[in-house]
């Protein structure tokens, strides 16, 4: 049986550039075996695009929020 994959696109605002946000998000995503990418945007925000099972994506977003860089999210 195949698990349905979903895609999320999340834009993080606040002091999220220059604080290791992308590095941390990639590390969490790799541990959870989520595919996608994370990039700095010109307006100072960071965009995350991730694909995986819905429950794993929820875990990814939660872990980013409670990580050390989560305090920089507005």
Question: What topology does this entry show?
Answer:
Blueprint: E1 5-12, H1 21-32, E2 35-40, E3 46-53, H2 54-66
Antiparallel strand pairs: 1-3, 2-3
Helix pairs in contact: 1-2
Unreliable stretches: none
Give the total of beta strands: 3
Summing up helix and strand content along with how strands pair, one would put the structural category as: alpha+beta
Tally of individual domains:
1
**Major sheet characteristics:** 3 strands, antiparallel
Oligomeric state as shown? single chain
Task: Provide an overview of this structure.
This protein is of the alpha+beta class and 74 residues long. The protein has a single domain, classed as Alpha-Beta Plaits (2-Layer Sandwich), CATH 3.30.70. The protein is 34% helix and 30% strand. It is built from 2 helices and 3 strands, in the order βαββα. It has helices at residues 21-32, 54-66, and strands at residues 5-12, 35-40, 46-53. It has a 3-stranded antiparallel sheet with strand order 1-3-2. Helix 1 runs antiparallel to helix 2. The longest helix is centred in the last third of the chain and has 13 residues, at 54-66. It is elongated and about 40 Å long. The N and C termini lie far apart (39 Å). The mean pLDDT is 94.
């Amino acid at each position: 049986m195949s698990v349905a994959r979903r895609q999320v696109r999340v834009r993080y605002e606040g002091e999220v550039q220059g604080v290791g946000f992308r590095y941390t998000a990639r590390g969490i995503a790799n541990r959870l075996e989520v595919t996608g990418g994370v990039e700095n945007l010109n307006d100072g925000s960071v965009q995350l695009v991730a694909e995986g099972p819905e429950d794993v994506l929820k875990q990814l977003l939660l872990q980013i929020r409670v990580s050390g860089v989560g305090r920089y999210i507005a």
